Amino acid sequence: MSYQRPKGTADILPGQSELWQRAEAIGRRVFDAYRYQEVRTPLFENYEVFSRSSGDTSDIVTKEMYDFEDKGGRKMALRPEGTAGVVRAYVENKLYGPEFAKPYKVYYMGPMYRYERPQSGRQREFHQFGVEAFGVDSPALDAEVIALGSDLLKALGAGNLKVVINTLGDPATREAYHAALIAYLTPYQDELSADSKVRLAKNPLRILDSKDKRDQEIVEGAPKILDYLTPEAAAHFSAVRGFLDGLGIQYEIDADMVRGLDYYNHTIFEIMSDDPVFDGGFTTVLAGGRYNGLVEELGGPETPGIGFGMGVERVMLLMQKQTVTTSLPVYLVTIDDKANAAALQLAHAIRQQGYAVDMDFLGRKAKAQFKSAAKENAQLTLTIGEEELASETVQVKNMATGAQKPVAFAELRTNFKQLYEELLEADHE
Ligand code: ATP
Ligand code: MG
């Protein structure tokens, strides 16, 4: 019996994981520059955490959630996105308290789960980097979060990017727009897709996000939310635009953009790429927005919030051309099985001084071991044979220059750092 991984999942193997580690290191560096700190929340939560925050009519809740009953009869779900769990943690841990700075800024990195049809850049287990900032309503923060998303993608080496923004306004905006949308769409009722017929009754805004061709044609003539903004909502949006202009961040406004989750208001944004790997058209790699009612929705005090999620697999497609080369400080070559004990001890002693060491376990010929050393980009090889065992020395070779010299075991055990630095100095002479 042999098994295959579940559909829509991936094994990230050595050879690929180096690129993931690089992405994570770059992510942490950029998040730190903007003063975001890491938060780690459970991979599963009570189902309601997601259904209340994403909204009952969202695709995520209606079609894509990995939900299950646990053995205690509780309805749970694997997280489909990061924000809901972070907001739950923010409320539960009372991070809105006066002892915490505002905005309270956190980032996360980790797997998300959605039951989707797998294809390139779309999996059932996928990964996001994301940020959330709580407690500040200023449009300057909206602009900073967009700048962060854009910096992050650039630092990761993503190209052909464009920033697209829109506003969903405040509750009064939504109410006026909602009515206008229903008035416009009702005459088309029978022509709408089955999904959109349901949306018309429950959440007409979501029809703007429909992937159905006929729905999209109908939507083209629909009223635009930008014409329904209250003066406050319009001022917020125009301030965000002003800050983006000041930062030199180019953007487009897409008045039909609504985003997949119910909780957004005011500024929403997506960063897309039309890099050739996405064969044809722009693909969204990072998306987010403001969600001023969400903390209250999950039982906390009225608290504004804003954030984004970035799809790591999609960004990875853009990073594929990058090669990661690693080097190995030491490869220990053993000429004879009798040298194994000494080699294990030396490797152990050098590793304890903070340097990576590899050695042979197959009893292969020296030539084959030197080949392995070269393949691993070893900087130094340490050779031990019968003679070296007797004299308690090794032959150290600088692989770049070919220079060789004998070094005593005792020195390797106690003083490797200095030796390593001296031996590699030779490279620069
Ligand atoms: P889409 O319209 O492509 O389904 P979405 O609106 O569902 O995207 P969000 O919930 O905004 O996506 O998630 C933010 C980002 O996470 C997306 O822009 C994308 O890069 C990534 N993402 C979302 N779903 C998947 C998935 N199933 N597999 C891989 N990446 C995903
Ligand atoms: Mg989706």
From TrEMBL:
Ranges in a coiled coil: none
Alphabetical list of Gene3D superfamilies matching this protein: Anticodon-binding domain, Bira Bifunctional Protein, Domain 2
Any Pfam family: HGTP_anticodon
Predominant subcellular localization, coarse grouping: cytoplasm
Molecular functions (GO terms): histidine-tRNA ligase activity
Protein biosynthesis listed as a keyword: yes
EC number(s) from the headed UniProt entry: 6.1.1.21
Catalysed reactions, as listed in the record: tRNA(His) + L-histidine + ATP = L-histidyl-tRNA(His) + AMP + diphosphate + H(+)
Keywords linked to the UniProt accession: Aminoacyl-tRNA synthetase, ATP-binding, Cytoplasm, Ligase, Nucleotide-binding, Protein biosynthesis
Entry keyword annotation includes Nucleotide-binding: yes
Cell compartments where the protein resides: Cytoplasm
Domain Aminoacyl-transfer RNA synthetases class-II family profile positions: 28-329
Superkingdom in the source lineage: Bacteria
Family to which the UniProt record says this protein belongs: Belongs to the class-II aminoacyl-tRNA synthetase family.
Protein name stated in the entry: Histidine--tRNA ligase
Species, as recorded: Lacticaseibacillus mingshuiensis
Lineage of the species this protein comes from: Bacteria, Bacillati, Bacillota, Bacilli, Lactobacillales
Underlying gene: hisS
